Amino acid sequence: MTRILIGCSLLLLTLLGPVLGQSPVRQADRQFDLLAYSKAIELYEQALSDKKSWVEADRMATLNKLAYSYRQVHDDQNALRVYQEMLSKGDLPAEYASAYLHYAQALASNGKYAQAQEAYEKYMATKRDDERGGAFAKLYKDVSVLSRNVGSYKVEFLELNTTRPEFSPIYYQDGIVFVSANGDAGIKRVFNWSNTPFLDLYYLPELKTVKVQKTASLGGGLPPVVKTGNTRLIRPLGRDDFTAPTSNDTRTVGFYGGANITAGSSYEDEPVTASDLFSRTLNTKYHEGPATFSRDGSRIIFTRNNYNNGRYNKSSDGVNKLKLYTAEQTNGNWKKIEELPFNSDEYSTGHPSLSKDDQLLYFSSDMPGGFGGTDIYVCRWVGSKWGTPVNLGTEVNTKGNEMFPFADEKGNLYFSSDGQPGMGGLDLFYANLTDNGQQVRWIQNLGEPINSNKDDFGIVTDGDRRTGFFSSNRKHGGEDDDLYRFNREGPMYPCRELIVNVFDAQTKQPLANTTIVIDEKESGNDKRDAKTDAEGNIRLCLEAEGDFRFMTTHEGYVNNQIGFSTRGLQDDKPSRLEIPLDKEGVDLALAEPPVATETKTMKGRITAQQGNKPLGGVKVILKSRADSTTQEAVTKSDGSYEFVVKPGVEYDVEAEKEGMATIGGRIDKTGAESPTLKMFTKGDVMQVENIYYDLDKADIRPDAATELDKVADLMAKYPKMRIELRSHTDSRATTDYNKTLSTNRAKAAVSYLKAKGISAKRLKAAGFGESELLNDCKDGVDCPDEKHQQNRRTEIKILTLN
Question: Helix and strand tally (H, E) in the chain?
Fold first, then answer.
């Protein structure tokens, strides 16, 4: 199972046996070249067991191919044994530098993290351009960080698992569709890669019929489950064992039940036979799997070898790649099977997942232009076809292999990777995406017990990760993929990591051995204290959804206290809180700006631009103009927040919320209440104050330029924002004249912003003349000048933010 490859690529259906008269090594090399790794292993082991003298270079080359073959069939223990033999005589020749990486991966897959750290550092020394070495070595110094939340999840082994592989579940109707290798009765079709049957899609129509067995947190540490080998279910989706050595891998789906998957809850629970496959139309004599369904269940997108309408195609180098196909369901049958437009005979595409609204398709591919083996791509439904695939970038994709994407109902992405730092083999990761589904904010390793030191992949779950299914070979390793169910019984995050840094306010030098008393407000918990290290830091793991106060004392310094809130934080990445301390006896009056020793609580509020609706869950950042230290808080449902501030210090206030923007605000030296910050989003219209023009002129006056400079700063703050500058006049003069004048004024404002470095593509000018008056001062109505002035205005309409 080369899960590192998405290309469940077939190469040849029947491989020639060893040629009589050839040596075992030559026979093994032939099987290796034909991707028949199981046969190659037997022959390499036979050749190496011969005690005849070997030329060292030949022996090293043979060991390297043997170790690689074991990796392809996911025999991590034997791969480790062979790599250890390769390294037994010292450093490897330069051409085998990648063996250090594979050795480290094999060590991790066997739970030997300390040794894996050393191996990654060795690999780093030979391959400085591969960031994986440093990232994995850093993790393995303390891999326990991935076990912090082990108590929140209960993982259960499904009794439907057989002695063959089951993997890559996906919800369908009231059940799940998954990939398996049950095979057809009376027909032996074996994939020569690892002597395993071909994969098909299967369907379990009712989840309530699933029976489970409890399993240990890591690696399924309970006694091995005795599998009956029944034919009720099949193997997990997209598995590498069944793929050829492209830079991709896939597993294929199988189904439990019958061909008519629309039968619903009345569908009878009967043993699967050859006729009980998900669909004879979809399941061919080659690999099928992983799959995804449209929201209404009428369309499927699935992975299959490059075979359709009886045609079997290969790449220019003779490999049968994977492709994505789509089909429609009509009266219980799948029809109109078609290729997706970005398929190719020269590379593989597979592992599809549709977004909730069916507008985005995520998949894995080794197409040219990627960052590693297999990368994850996304494309959008445009009109009546899929658009050009976009690589999700280096936040997700590495020099390793990323595959098995799954988009949850909230628009975020799960995927598996052996290139992102993890516990060994494939690990499951969660990517928090922006609203457009194409950019990544941050990535999180799901940790134990969902991940193990073996391969974990093919997850499906709800938007809050309350329950779901995934695939893993943790029980017996190798090709033994099974389905697991999980339930979250605790918090999604074990705690909120915070780094508190204390330093001298004047010299900026860190203050070691500073005592910090942590007080959780309204919790009733006892106060606790800790001391800073040599760098002035303390690492804390705080309760989620809590409000805290930090009281800091250090001999010779004035005490300080700062508030912090973990409410509404969206990830488990460490936050940083900086606390400056002033020396006792320092004449603060000479400081610039002056720093006060007393503190007070400042309260503020965040609302929407339209309708002044309070905004909860907004991240608010307070930055001191005295020493650039920052505090963070999250608004409550009424839009309120609070900070501890020092009178005599000015602060800047910023607010962050996905899909929204703000001009920001400032707190003056008196520490008065912060003005309400307004946040705007796409489509909002904001009036820009004090942009005036001389009578009948469109020139930008100095006072107007000051306000337009603020607009330029806003555009720089949000580099993807596009705006429309909308100019209005009062009703005096003719309608045509006012229309022309307002258009010229809007164009002048755009020209001014362009001169400030704002791209013309982000600016649009629009003159509305007297067509959108704010009061009743229309033609023929006698109004004072101050009411006419209300209509002479410039506005900004937000066209896009992301």
Answer: 10, 44
